[in-house]
Amino acid sequence: MVFLHQISSRQRPPATAGAPSDGISYVAPPKTSSSSTNNIINTATTKKSKASGKEGENADFVLIDKMISLLAEAGVTLHNPGGPPCLPSDLHKLRRLLEQRFSSEDSLLSDFLSGLNAYTCNPENFRRVLISASRDGSSRSESLVRGLLLVAPLQLKLQQMLLEKLPEYFDVDMSCAASLEDDVPRLILTQFRWLDFLVDSEGFTDKLLEVLSICPLQLKKEIIGSLPEIVGDQNNKKLVAALEQMLQEDSAVVVSVLDSFSNLHLDDQLQEQVITISLSCIRTIDAEHMPYLLRFLMLSATPRNVRRIISQIREQLKFVGVPDSRSVRGKKLKGKALVDNTESLILEALRSSLRFKNLLCQEILKELKCLDKAKDHKVIDVWLLMLIYTSGGSLQKSVVKIIKTKIIEGCFKEALFDQCIDGHMDLVQDYFPSFLSWCEYLLACKEQTVRQYGIHMYTSLFEEFTDNYSRQEILGALVTHVGSAVGYEVSSALDTMVLLASKYAEELIPLSSYINGMLDYLEGFNIEKLHKVYEVFSYLVLSARSSADSVGSSIVNELLMIIRKQVSNPDLKYKKMGLIGTLKIVSCLGNAENSNFPSSQKTNFEDALELLKASMDSCKSLSLPLILFYDELIALLENTPLHPAVMEWIGKHVGMFESMFLSDLEGGQLPVKDSYCGLEGELWMNLDGDLSPICLNILPLVSSSTQSTSSIQILPANFLLLSVVERLTNQGSLGGIDALLGCPIILPSPKYFGGHGWLSLTGKQKQALCLSLYYAISWIRELLNAFSTQVAGRINGTSQATREEIIAKLLKRLRNLVFLERLLNTSLKLYPVNLPELHLSVEHPESSFLNKRNHLQNMEKKNDQNKMCERDSSNNKKKQRTKMKAAENSDLNGKLWQPTILDVLKKSGAVTTQQVQNEVSSSLSHMEKASQRGEHTIETNEPAVVEISAVAKVLNAQRFKFRPLLVDCLSILTLAKNEDSCCADPAAQLPLHLYLLHDLHYKLDYLTTPSKQFPLGGLRAPAGLSRMTVSEFVSKIRALFPSLRKHFDAALFILKEGAETCQEHWSTQSTGAGNPDIPDLVVSNSTVAGSVFREILRCFSKILNLPDIQTDKAVLSDLLGAFQPVKVRYSLLSSIQPIPSPGNIDYLYCGAYSFLEDILESDLSFSFSITSEVLVTLESIVTSVTLHDKLREGKGKHTHIQSVQGVLPAFSKRLGGSAQKLLMHQQENENLENGWRNKGEIIQKILQIYLKNSASNSDPLDELACSILPQVPSSKTKTTQDTVHSFPTLCPATFVVWYRVLHEENLAVLHKLVKEVVMLEKHRGDVQLETVKGLLMRLRQSVNVVVSLVNMCRTHEKVTVHAMAVKYGGKFIDSFLKVFDFLQTYFRAHDDTIIQLVKELQKATRTIQTLCSEAKGLKQTSITTKIPATKRSLERFLFQVKSLLHNTSNGCSFWMGNLKHKDLSGQVVSSQLFADEEDDNNEEDPEHMEADVDNQSSEGDGEAESSA
Description:
The chain is mainly alpha-helical. It is elongated, with a radius of gyration of 46 Å.
């Protein structure tokens, strides 16, 4: 804005010393020749040239005298030696007198102007008549010229004369003028301001603009800024055009032009023209003028133009000063201060405007919500969100939600944030608290992507702000996150701390007091978080020891003191902290690369060795801490090269393994057969035969552990440490300990697992038997972990024969493992034992620790119960057996039926109930075979059938205690070997493959769904993944892809052909692996094949949708290439344009889809469960294609990721068709309802796939909801066989599933329509009539669906159905409210359609009201909890309809009143009425309000007219 200085009252200046006595001096004006300036004559005429002569001078004298006389007659004293002329006190009298004289004498006006012109040729005289004059008896006020300008006959001529004199002063430097009275141009402008009237406004404006066009820049700015005060409103159009022309010629006047625009009173049309002019200047204006332009535009915003203003500002504003600061940080940029100052002024202009107009904030948020591509977002977007957030208020939540959404969608990249803050510390300083608040919000979000962005923001702020205050605030915020007790938030905060400590350890040492706050929360941390905490401090310790700073030394001493206290604490919780802290410090101090930093007394590796010895001494008598110490030391050895002295000490320690756990053999046999706890021991699983020199003492160590503390519990961890040390010291080879792979194990005699042998055992012996099996399982798992490294990659010095021998032994050990686990599972079912923990790993973030403890307590109670029974008499034993037998017989199939993989997965949530149906039927067939063989029912204390194909369900409850399989073990899947046997039966290998596939699936679950609660068997994360990234995991399993296809084909062949299992084949291989002969061993061929089939499909789906694999073309190509058919269907390829080329990613996607689609169509006839799994896998391929394209779009045009967008429509269409075929599948089962009852969840999934992938979402929804679903009979009225529709999967048993899915999908369709309506409103001017009509038709379809679904409650009495109607009906109404602005906009063009739409929806709202009323009366809490939200939506809908009809005013009648209280059948209910008022038809339940819309008259007697 331009503000002119007001003319303040001042005293008259004294007369000039050289002035004549009459006060009138004639001095040449500025633009005269130098010869004439020397002639000073005391006359009242303008200066003439010497050639003008005496006559001209005399004429000027006459005119001046005449002018002076006229003014004197009017009371003006022109000759005032002390200052300006004196004016009379009554100026109105002066004006009237002059007007009368000028009107009476025509020539007087011209003579007066000539005289005035001659008089003012003298600059001093001109200045005197322009400055404020003196009135008689009053203070100084208006000037003489201003008084004359208010004389109507004189005004226009005088204005022109003044404007003509203005150019005479263009070349005069007025910058040195002491005051306004000395600045003649500004004095002239002052005369024109705020005149009471303008005689000829147009003529004056033309003259003024003519002079304005030739004015110098400074005077031009002054005049432009004063135009609103000079020119009348009737000339605004001309002014706007002239100012636009000036802007085009010279952008330097933009500030004055904007000032003038803002003060002009413009109509709507001119205002829009001005906005357009201003918007066009954004690209061309100088940066220093940008704040003024933005402030003008923002403050000029109205509901009509705000969208255009915001859009243009976002598109055209180039936010200056965004260099890549990472290349210039620490350097002083030339002109940087100016740029930052300009940017700060721009931000301040935007912030003040946003605070002034809330409309701008809402429009900005709306504009940003509509953007869905990363390339459309700019730096100014982040700043606009920041300015809105800084302003406070209710919009802060909206801002952070938008930021979160944009990050999840990939629209806000990290580079966008870097451009905002990097290198702009001065600019960001004022907004630092708000940026920090954003970081706090993002780091507390559940989504991993959002938290990663928060970590990046924290680190960027820390890098940018080097002052102590800012960094203390950042560290304080991070410590607050660490103490939040929210797992994912704590983990992300610790990741941020680790990142900062790794980069800026030296700078963090002075701020260590803030970091020490993390130590207060150690008690609540799991092992993973403890690693991160101590990693932070290890960086600080290493940095502190490398410097002689006293502060750093105190940090080291304090940390070591804390760790020593923790290690010496007898409580496992604190000892665990100390051990992890010790080994983290050792990883830094003992690192071979960091061992050269000298300290005051000892070298770093000596301190590390001392810490190791102290930790080992504190754990010698405690098994779990020692196991943790070994595991942590293993991880340290594999990731950190330690000093040779440290490695030597570790080697000496593991050298004691042989004396602790092994015994010598003579000719492969025990020298002496002893009894342990009364159990005879035998050698099991001897792979080396008579050549084996040693054996593992499991049973002797278990028997000793029941009496005193034993080392058996640390056996697996100790061996794994031994193998790691051997590999590191022997160039990766395990040749020094290869005898352990084939050595036998001392275990209880197999005779104890028979019926009579088991009955003869005491409780203590049964416990020893179970524990022996448990430790044998853990031993074999560690053997697989250790020796799988020898075949996973090439080891120097290992021959091919040795490698093949190791492979053969690994396969046998895997067969041993499968056998032992099933045997232990059978034993635990008969005698529950609380197995000791052999592994302390990272607890899953949401694992149910309480459930785990309760489960173990129940097992201990059962165990105690069994011990008490053993002390009773034989009669009590018999009674106890009878009771337990009766308990087992409570399930008719409990005797022989064994749990399958799907039972366990169903419990964990990984597999649905419906997928178990196939397994049940196969298990029943085995029970029939068993009964035909004359097998008898096993009593309580006798071992059950050991079924190799079944998952160890009881054992899985304690699987978290097992030693985990590492990722290298999965390479055994590639080592399938054709062994010599009686036949070529692939099913003999499938149980081994299934075991590893199940482990692969478990690891993928952990990687892909970290927030999902695992089953009891998965309370702890696998150690092989706790410190492994997704990309590292994918690179390790990449070689498995061809093997997965191979095993998949084998399983599919068995499922299709139904090949019989050769029992002798399995027995031969089991005997070759050293497994003892168990008579009750059953191998279920079809169950294993089906489980392998499903596991591979699930693993394929999970691997395919890993984000890391989408960005790695080679890995993705390998995965898809492994599942290619012999020939891709031409019908699929031809439906894609352009047709994919072989070798491209899109072609590989087509091949994988075609391969699975062939299986789906061929298998549809024999297994609904199998085909449904294939369909879900096909959907995962479509999901992968979508994710692939999103990642490609996020990477930009120049990415290496190939586009696969063309295949998505073809895949979706075919997927929808396949889902429809599956829904129409007729199950071959006599009892169809029972057949579908257990398949509800998978039917739900198939139905969702069908609806989401149909060509039109609305059409199948409309057909199913309005035509198909109403045909399903109520279970109380009709039988299942009465259905006449074409969907066999839709029956009373599955009605609720279909009903819920249709509600959910219809709600999703409405949400999409709402988004389309919002986009349509944004581009309202370009909307086609057909587009609006199409949207209304789709809205009508959606309304029809919800009305049909809600009205089904009248025939279906299930409370679940009614609850869903109330819940989803309320949500539908709530979303439908968002389209009322759209309906109001197009009401006049489509009034009939919209009225019918509302009336149709009214049918559903009335039914919902009735459902709510009945639920309250019947106290159905499953419904009443949903009523408040639904009621609010119904009330809002009621008043929105009223507002719609009121605003459109089309004559439509509207009533609002109380509905009659009716039940679902339409009968009137007495409700709250008294008995004597029941016959009054005009009374209604006041609790129910509803509206009725009609074009004619009132409907029904029960509605009172409220408005019309």
